[in-house]
């Protein structure tokens, strides 16, 4: 899920990544492909313009990649068309695919949509399996964009390995361990340990503060750390019987009943206000969340936040997208070359440095811009190391075509438990009724 709602996708400013490396521009010169043929050129001089249609923040502008590509390929100009909210972008993409018009030369696809696109629209996209080496990506990433007959319709951009962001000053005031390694040990047993830590926090919590922002965010982290979530391998919805869903639901209900949460759906105005006020002690924290926290918390809390490993022995993945090339485009070869370049290790490392969006290409993990990355705002947390280690433990999840619909319906009812005091049984009934109507 790429957060692109009100308040800005993944942050409008970028928390600075500190590394011990040369500037990203030096490595961008590597990994460039051929400049493509000119048989499809639009200009009389052989020049063409490639349009990249995406949503939220992919980080390419921040990293200066399109300008860099033009320097490497003077005959190609890349233009980005950004839709702020992915929920607006996706229906438009489906309409364009159905009509065969209005598509970009390159299109972004969010991970929550990729299964549906693979199952129903794959024939409308170029097969990238001969252009990219799927072994370069974390193993589960490219499988998400691979059809049953082996076609790869999308090259992975980013992933969202889960960590735990916490206010170390509030932990200290509540008598809890504040060192990131000690915090990791305290929740090493899993999200149940996280709630136990929350109860300890509540007992001595600084006035006006809450242990977590949202039980629905914790729920998503719990479910996303399991291979079997909402569908089985045969494509059957199994969310009602999924152990991961049940565990996440039970923990969310417990958090709501024990009032360990402020009950604020993430990315709402109330949520951003709580970060500014400093009333939240912990946030379930995929890699891109750090920018959201630093941007909304502001300078007053710089150095008071820290980042630790996520609870448990397996990490969750929350987020991530793909770049795909519509088969009917006028510049398929040139667009494919661009996708290959944008998703190469050097460029993904540059995006991480510029925008904090973590690479899915494993080759980036040993590059200095990733390996040595720290976040000054988060007490110098070694995020490159933390996220890379978490990425190794993310399970290969089974995706379904309506994962997003199911998750949103359940999250809405968790919000009702927090905000309205809805009983868990009533909330679950309402969630399942909504889901069953939506997915048929």
Structure description:
The protein is of the alpha/beta class and 440 residues long. It has 19 helices and 10 strands. The longest helix is centred in the last third of the chain and has 18 residues, at 403-420. The two termini are 23 Å apart. Residues 1-16 and 18-41 have low confidence and may be disordered.
Shape: globular
Overall mean pLDDT: 90
Described by strand count, sense and barrel closure, the largest sheet is: 8 strands, mixed
Structural class: alpha/beta
Question: What order do the helices and strands follow?
Answer: EHEHHEHEHHEHHHEHHHEHEEHHHEHHH
The percent of residues in helical segments reads: 40-55%
Subunit organisation of the chains: single chain
Strand content: 5-15%
Distance between the termini: 23 Å
